[in-house]
Structures are given as C-alpha cells and as structure tokens.
C-alpha cells in the first residue's frame, strides 16, 4: 500500500475535549459529543483503502474501539498543531515511504469515506489537496511529498489558516485541489446544525 491516512484524535477525557462546546453545554455533554464524532470518524476510516495511522493527543489507548481494526497507533509529538502534523507526515513519508499521505481530525460529522477517497484520487494530478472547513481552517490536508511551509507560521484555530496555507502552496509553485467545504463541530451552534441535519 502506497497510501496512508493519518487520523489525529484527542484522548476522550472529561474536561479536555471540545472546550468551546463545554463552555455552554458542560463537560459531560461535550465529552459525549466528542465520543460520537470519534465513532463517526472511526467508521468512515475503516472503509478507506489506505493504511491507517492513528495519532493520539497524549497517550496510546491499547484496548479501545480502534483496537484490532488495522490502525497503527502513535502519539502526537510537538508543542503546537503544526509541529505535531509535520512530525506525523515525516513519519509517513520518511519512515514508511508512503507516496500519498492525507491527514484528518475527528471534528467533522459531515466527512465521508468518499471524500477521503477523492482526496487520494486528486493527488494523482495535484501536489496537494485541501478540505476547507467553514471556520477558515481545514478538515483535511493531503500531499504526495513532504511540504513543510504549510505547518509553520500559523495561528492555529483562527479564520486565516486556510488562506495562509493556500498562499504557501501557490508561492512554491505547487498545485492543489479544494474539496467540498464542511463544518467542524466546535461550538453549540455547530452541534445544533449537526443535529438538525441528521
């Protein structure tokens, strides 16, 4: 297999996930919603034809729902999201020599197996692929060779991340494909939209 799907998740611990949701809905409800998102993410990833590299935020959980499902398990390394993502991509490209690598998080209830599959297909003809989210960031990033500028000089979780990433790619003379825009579930409003559409 020459394709790797990197999945970034947070260890599902009360008070440490979905803090913006927790601010209005409480820690227990926020944790419950995050577990729903994790279940959705796991289900769609199991159907993707790629090796699956699962990166936990703090520690590897040995006996959880991801166990025995062909997920290689790792821990994220680095002080900010950019460093953690770059390190994961380096692992995939340099240690395992994958030729196409896509990363997703676990915040998007609208993400589907078909969208992830499309991301790998578009890497046949583009250097990179981006799945833009409605908050100005992205829910997916893919590349066919390591391109580190997209991981640096960013204020993560701000509305400028997507545009700055596009500028990095264009300035390097590389090509990219934009996938459909989806919604990350970060606030009570996002969650209500998810409930209303389900």
- Domain count, please report it: 1
The helix-and-strand class reads alpha/beta
* CATH homologous superfamily caption: Spore Coat Polysaccharide Biosynthesis Protein SpsA, Chain A
Largest sheet: 7 strands, mixed
What is the rounded distance between the termini? Answer: 34 Å
Shape category: globular
Which parts are unreliable, with pLDDT below 50 for 5 consecutive residues or more?
none
Averaging pLDDT over every residue, what do you get?
Answer: 95
CATH class identity? Alpha Beta
CATH-defined fold name:
Spore Coat Polysaccharide Biosynthesis Protein SpsA, Chain A
Tally of individual helices: 6
What is the β-strand count? Answer: 7
The portion of residues forming beta strands comes to 15-25%
CATH architecture, by name, is: Alpha-Beta Complex
Strand order of the largest sheet: 3-2-1-4-6-5-7
Radius of gyration: 16 Å
Binned, the helix content reads 25-40%
**SSE order, one letter for each helix or strand:** EHHEEHEHEEHEH
Structure, explained:
The protein is α/β, with parallel strands linked by helices. The protein has a single domain, classed as Alpha-Beta Complex (Spore Coat Polysaccharide Biosynthesis Protein SpsA, Chain A). The protein has six helices and seven strands, in the order E-H-H-E-E-H-E-H-E-E-H-E-H. It has helices spanning 19-25, 27-45, 81-95, 113-122, 161-171, 188-197, and strands at 3-9, 51-56, 71-75, 100-104, 128-132, 138-143, 176-178. A seven-stranded mixed β-sheet has the order 3-2-1-4-6-5-7, with helices on both faces. Strand 5 (128-132) and strand 6 (138-143) form a beta hairpin. Helix 1 (19-25) packs across helix 2 (27-45). The longest helix is centred in the N-terminal third of the chain and has 19 residues, at 27-45. The protein is globular. The mean pLDDT is 95.
